[in-house]
Each structure stands twice: as C-alpha cells, then as structure tokens.
C-alpha cells in the first residue's frame, strides 16, 4: 500500500523531471511543489503547510557566528530545507526525536552526495540557555555534523523575540511553564513537534505536525525526492 | 478555528511531556502479522567497555533472535533501566543476541569515551554498540529512549516499546521473538 503510493509518486516526479523544472506541467496540480498532496490535508492548520511559501526568517547561527536567512538559502544557495523547533533542555525526549530525524536526513544527504543541496535548520526557542557552547555540545551528543556546513542551529536574540517570531511566522504558540516534575530544571516549554520540509524554491512540501513520531524513513525519503528533483 | 488547532496540538504534546515518554508509534504495523517485512541487517561498531569489546555486531543477528535496548548517555530514564537489563540478560543470553545500542556517534573519540564511561558507571556488562549514522535507529523508528525491541530469528520485529520496563515486561517482550 505504502509502497504503491511511493512508486506512483516517483512516477509523477519522473514526468516532472523530464519537463526540466519543478512541476510546471499543466494538470499536475500545485506548480510550486515536487511532491503530491499529503494524505492528511493540513491547509487549515495555523502553521505553514503543503504549497505555502516558507516564511522568511533571518536569525543568528551562534556557532558559525553569522546570520542565516532562509530567503538567501533558497535564492542564492539553492538548497532544500528541513526546519524544526526545539530546545536543548527538553526533558521528555520530544526534541531529540525531532533532531534525530534531521540528523538522519543529514547522514543520508552526505552518503548520497546531496549534502550541498541541503540545509538543516533547527530553531531554538530557549536562547537564554541555548548558547553557542551548549548547542555545540548538543550537536556532538546528537551525532549532528557541524563540519558538513549545512546544519545551522538558529537562535533568536531573546526569548520574547523568538516567541513573537514563532507565533507570527509559524503559528506556534510557545510559553514557559514550570518544570515541577523534573529535578534540576527550572522551566520547560510544552510545544508542538513540527518539522517543515521546503523545496529549493522555498515552498513547503510537507509539514509533519507529529514530528517526534513520524516515520524517520518517510521524512528522509520525502526530503531526498524533493532535494534531487 | 486556527487557534483551537494550535492549542489542541500543544495540549497533546504537553500530555506526552507529562508522561515523560514518547511512543514510537510504529509498533502495530510491524507486530505479528505474516506480512511483516524482515529488517535489513545493519552492521554497527561495538565499543570497548565492560562486557563489550571493540568490533562489530550485525543487527538483526543472522542466526538467532535479537534483543536491542536503545539507550543514550544523555537519557536519565536509561540509567534506571540498566540494573533491570542486568537482571534479565542472564535469563535469555543463551537464546538471543542481547545488545544495547546508542544513537551517539562513537566514531568521535570523545563520544566513544563518554559512552564507555557511562557504561562502566551504570554497571553495563554486555555488548554495547554505536549507531554511528543512525541507520538502525531510523529503520526501527526509535523516537524515545529507552526503547526495547525484540526481533525474531527471521529478522522480523515482534515487539517494540519505549519507556522504562520491568524485568517481567522485558522477558515477555523477548518471549514473543523466540
């Protein structure tokens, strides 16, 4: 069943590929995207979804010491993007599960030779604790390659700036909550485990609202089809 | 309308957070049925640590059932799971390949030392391997730590469940793969 769907989608991608550009064949639906519509229609969700333009954001990458702009990634660097929202003090395993999906996609990108066509952008909403040093340590812990040059942890200047950005651009409401259940943790953030996949032109191909549990190979395969289209 | 959906999403994540655990979600599809596909074997480096020597392990094992404990050194509940695993292992060791696997990348020396130190500190005494490229973790869609997975002799997953388990739960899970 799944396999049939996959093959059919591949066939579709093949036709589009022959035409030489992203889905510009009439009758193939949304011309800005590579993948067919997702099984679950998320167009009413508050967050960006299939066919939407990924909201443009410019945020510091504190490890590289540079500003990263999503618009520039699409326009100049011609990369497909996996983007998610996390914080390193996440006590319940949700964030490592999100990061793990991006990490596996990064590994496969390196193995398959499309690492330079890819960008992985996890945005922290806890800039107070997620300093460059903490993020670097987290990368090591999570098996992320910073040397590949395609992974940018993005860190808003302040908690409030991040909160505003996430709500206005991505429809995600983030609030600090007491962390009474956890030792050594002053506060936590109940949050939405969202992963977004955008193509090289900056359009959302997939939104995975169940990011921490979505099948890892589904994300990796979707990303591969988008980045190699 | 839009706002309601966001709030619903947050609430469900918060509920997960409260449980301190995260279901991997793929279990029903891989359990039991005759159409379950065998897992393609992955070869991982093993770590020089108590009960474990540097080398390689292939998972699933080609010739017998496999039990995998997915853990990470940054995972606090995994510490709690260790003495229970130590108790269960001698009861099943002659029938299954018993191995712990971390998604941490031991090809980096510092990470390898961290894993070996953690292993010693928590009285590990069996084979421990590193999923250096997260290949096995991805195949089995492990999203939370610890996660226990029992694979039968033919390479099919028979049981997969996240969270800290009692010895009886682990033994019952392993039993499904024998």
TrEMBL record, chain A:
Residues reported in the UniProt entry to bind Cu cation: 90, 95, 191
Disulfide bonds listed in the record: 90-95
Stored InterPro entries: SCO1/SenC, Thioredoxin-like_sf, Thioredoxin_domain
UniProt-listed Pfam families: SCO1-SenC
Assigned keywords, A-Z: Copper, Disulfide bond, Metal-binding
Chain segments annotated as coiled-coil in the UniProt record: none
Keyword Iron among record annotations: no
MF term (GO), any: metal ion binding
Name of protein: Protein SCO1/2
Organism encoding this protein: Halopenitus persicus
TrEMBL record, chain B:
One Pfam family per UniProt: Redoxin
Cell compartments where the protein resides: Cell envelope
SUPFAM superfamilies in the record: Thioredoxin-like (SSF52833)
Domain Thioredoxin: 33-178
InterPro entries the UniProt entry points to: Redoxin, Thioredoxin-like_sf, Thioredoxin_CS, Thioredoxin_domain, Thioredoxin_ResA/DsbE_sf
Gene3D superfamilies cross-referenced by the UniProt entry: Glutaredoxin
GO molecular function: oxidoreductase activity
PROSITE patterns hit by this protein: THIOREDOXIN_1, THIOREDOXIN_2
A GO BP annotation: cytochrome complex assembly
Keywords, comma-separated and alphabetical: Cytochrome c-type biogenesis
Signal peptide as annotated in the record: none
Annotated protein name in UniProt: Redoxin
Organism: Halopenitus persicus
């Amino acid at each position: 069943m799944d396999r049939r769907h996959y093959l059919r989608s591949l066939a579709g991608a093949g036709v589009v590929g022959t035409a030489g550009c992203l889905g510009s064949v009439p009758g193939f639906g949304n011309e800005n995207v590579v993948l067919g519509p997702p099984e679950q229609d998320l167009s009413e969700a508050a967050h960006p979804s299939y066919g939407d333009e990924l909201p443009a954001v410019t945020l510091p990458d504190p490890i590289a010491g540079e500003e990263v702009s999503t618009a520039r990634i699409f326009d100049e660097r011609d990369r497909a993007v996996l983007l998610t929202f996390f914080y390193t003090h996440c006590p319940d395993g949700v964030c490592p599960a999100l990061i793990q999906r991006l990490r596996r996609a990064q590994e496969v990108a390196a193995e398959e030779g499309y690492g330079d066509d890819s960008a992985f952008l996890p945005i922290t909403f806890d800039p107070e604790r997620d300093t460059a040093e903490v993020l670097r340590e987290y990368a090591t812990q999570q098996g992320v390659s910073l040397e590949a040059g395609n992974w940018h942890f993005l860190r808003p200047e302040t908690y409030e700036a991040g909160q505003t950005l996430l709500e206005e651009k991505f429809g995600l409401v983030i609030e600090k909550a007491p962390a009474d259940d956890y030792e050594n943790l002053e506060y936590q953030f109940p949050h939405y485990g969202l992963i977004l996949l955008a193509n090289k032109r900056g359009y959302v191909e997939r939104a995975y609202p169940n990011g921490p549990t979505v099948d890892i190979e589904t994300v990796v395969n979707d990303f591969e089809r988008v980045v190699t289209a | 309308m839009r706002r309601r959906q966001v709030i619903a999403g947050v609430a469900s994540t918060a509920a997960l957070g409260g449980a301190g655990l995260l279901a991997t979600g793929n279990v029903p599809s891989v359990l039991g049925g005759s159409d379950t596909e065998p897992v393609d074997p992955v070869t991982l480096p093993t770590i020089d640590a108590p009960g474990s020597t540097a080398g390689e392990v292939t998972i699933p094992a080609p010739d017998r059932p496999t039990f995998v404990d997915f853990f990470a050194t940054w995972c606090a509940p995994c510490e709690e799971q260790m003495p229970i695993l130590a108790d269960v292992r001698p009861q099943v060791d002659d029938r299954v390949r018993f191995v712990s696997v971390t998604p941490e990348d031991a090809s980096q020396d510092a990470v390898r030392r961290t894993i070996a130190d953690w292993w010693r500190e928590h009285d590990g005494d069996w084979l421990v391997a590193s999923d250096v490229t997260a290949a096995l973790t991805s195949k089995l869609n492990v999203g939370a730590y610890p996660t226990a997975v029992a694979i039968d002799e033919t390479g099919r997953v028979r049981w997969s469940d996240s969270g800290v388990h009692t010895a009886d739960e682990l033994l019952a899970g392993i039993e499904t793969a024998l």
